[in-house]
Design a protein that fits this description.
Blueprint: E1 12-16, E2 19-22, E3 27-31, E4 38-43, H1 47-63, H2 71-87, H3 89-100, H4 108-127, E5 133-135, H5 140-143, E6 144-145, E7 148-158, E8 161-165, H6 171-184, E9 188-192, H7 199-210, E10 218-221, H8 227-234, E11 240-244, H9 247-258, E12 263-267, E13 273-276, H10 287-292, E14 305-309, H11 313-324, H12 345-360, E15 364-367, E16 384-387, H13 394-397, E17 404-410, H14 413-421, E18 425-426, E19 429-432, H15 436-445, E20 452-453, E21 467-468, E22 471-472, H16 477-482, E23 485-493
Parallel strand pairs: 8-9, 8-11, 9-10, 11-12, 13-14, 13-19, 14-17, 16-17, 19-20
Antiparallel strand pairs: 1-2, 1-10, 3-4, 5-7, 6-7, 7-23, 12-22, 15-16, 18-21
Helix pairs in contact: 1-8, 2-4, 2-7, 3-4, 4-6
């Protein structure tokens, strides 16, 4: 396996047919959100090159060299990719700091890099435990009929060619969630990272080259615009689309994929609740920190609606403001920084607009609510706490995707659950309580794909996914592997 530090020739925006290619499309500029400096300027892949990548994946899958290999053989090649990425973890981190604003000295660095690599390895472990054939539970009366015995079983086969479209906030981690499960189950894949954060993701192509994956099994395209992404969701040679991003774009992906009835896995927006039960209100002190310190609030699963007992709301707001006052906002590479920038100026403006809308609707800014005046370069917004009267405030309805949280008082636990469920989203949720039975019962009533009680753990062995506008399908876990397979039901008589 190659030990080269950088296998991608400078300026290449596409990897297909097992080779890197210079882009033939519009030029794109990757900007450092900490200071607005230019990280890289490259010509993006053209729509024709995206279509060539799809053709490469189709040929690779239909050729059978990868899909026909044993799962253990595929896992061995993918572990070689992970080994190469682990050997180049420092460069991977540098790219994420530069293009995504990852705070180098924050715990999120571990999630963006170390945990991403560990979970990819664990996904391969889990894949190797899943049977390729399972018996159907026919009752004896059907299994042993007068005419002879009948055997019925399920055979799991790869879906085929997968289009994977990733998001900008955790670009490498989210891409790895798609690449390793899809490939270990025998599919070929075309990956399109966000044009805002494409550089670290392209290291997956380098890893594939270093590990000598068969040509066309993994293809990566960086583009400016969305023409290629549309091709990836409409081309009849594609069998499945996995997309992480906003609910608005997710709707478009669903419509585009409908014509050819592609399988979908969509992980979309969220407006998750944090419910603090009366016996654990003191834990709400850190409720704002949990959002704002998690990559500046740029996470779809974050609990941005915080529900506390009405009669203790004022005290909670004071405690939250005091805790957030200790956050140091600044450049991602500054040793003193604890919260870095947002991805773009547009995202800063979105935070401003929602704060203004919240105040117009009767809300109150308790802490933050503006761009830090001392940071004139870069895309920054202060950690912000809003005191809103109810769940109808605009800032409590829509995903903001920034360091802005709403605190809402509830009359009783039933009221808290009702407000938590009063949302078109259903991605995640959080319940805090010392009475574990009560906390579990509240969590069970939340209409959401994942609920964390008194904390949370993200594991490769446990799946996540949304309801409603938060998407369809699951990632990670058994369900996140099986979604990349088709079921063939086979019956044999004798």
């Amino acid at each position: 396996m190659s030990t080269a530090t950088n296998l991608n020739p400078e300026g290449c925006a596409a990897f297909f047919d097992g080779r890197f290619h210079r882009g033939e499309g519009r030029r794109l500029c990757v900007v450092n959100p900490s200071d607005e400096s230019v990280v890289a300027q490259i010509s993006g892949a053209s729509t024709g090159q995206v279509e060539a990548a799809i053709a490469s994946a189709r040929s690779a899958f239909d050729g059978g060299r990868w899909s026909g290999a044993s799962r253990s053989e595929r896992a061995r090649s993918l572990r070689a990719m992970l080994q190469w990425l682990g050997d180049h973890k420092e460069r991977l981190t540098d790219l994420l700091v530069a293009e995504a604003g990852l705070v180098r000295r924050s715990p999120i660095k571990m999630a963006q890099v170390d945990i991403a690599l560990k979970q990819a390895d664990h996904i391969l472990d889990l894949a190797l435990t899943l049977p390729e054939i399972e018996d159907n539970p026919l009752p004896p009366a059907e299994r042993f009929a007068d005419a002879g015995s009948v055997h019925s079983f399920r055979r799991y086969e790869p879906v085929g060619v997968v289009s994977a479209i990733s998001a900008y906030n955790f670009p490498f981690f989210i891409s790895a969630w798609k690449v390793f499960p899809a490939l270990v189950m025998g599919n070929a894949l075309v990956l399109r990272p966000s044009p805002l954060t494409p550089l670290a993701v392209m290291m997956l192509a380098e890893a594939a080259a270093a590990a000598d994956l068969p040509s066309g099994v993994l293809n990566v395209v960086i583009e400016d615009g969305a023409e290629g992404a549309v091709a990836m969701t409409t081309d009849p040679r594609v069998d499945m689309v996995t997309f992480t991003g906003s609910s608005a774009v997710g709707r478009q992906v669903m419509v585009q994929a409908a014509e050819t009835m592609k399988r979908l896995q969509l992980e979309l927006g969220g407006k998750s609740a944090q419910i603090y039960l009366p016996d654990s209100v003191e834990l709400a002190t850190a409720a704002g920190d949990r959002v704002c310190l998690a990559h500046s609030g740029q996470g779809c699963v974050l609990g941005t609606r915080i529900f506390v007992p009405e009669d203790r709301k004022a005290a909670v707001l004071d405690m939250m403001a005091s805790s957030l006052s200790r956050i140091v906002v600044g450049p991602a590479d500054d040793p003193a920084t604890t919260m870095g920038p947002l991805i773009s100026r547009a995202q800063v403006e979105r935070c401003e607009q929602f704060v203004e809308a919240a105040v117009r609707a009767g809300g109150r800014i308790v802490f933050g609510g503006r761009r830090p005046p001392h940071l004139t370069q870069g895309f920054y917004f202060e950690p912000t706490v809003l005191d809103v009267a109810d769940n109808d405030n605009p800032a409590a309805r829509e995903e903001i995707f920034g360091p802005v949280v709403c605190v809402i008082g509830y009359r009783d636990v039933d009221h808290a659950v009702q407000m938590a469920n009063d949302s078109p989203y259903g991605l995640s949720g959080h319940v805090f309580g010392k009475n574990m039975r009560q906390a579990y019962e509240v969590a069970a009533r939340l209409r959401t794909g994942t609920v964390n009680i008194n904390g949370g753990a993200m594991s490769a062995f446990a799946s996540s996914g949304g309801r409603g506008l938060s998407g369809v399908g699951r990632e990670r876990g058994v369900e996140g592997l099986r979604i990349y397979q088709e079921i063939k039901c086979m019956s044999v008589s004798r």
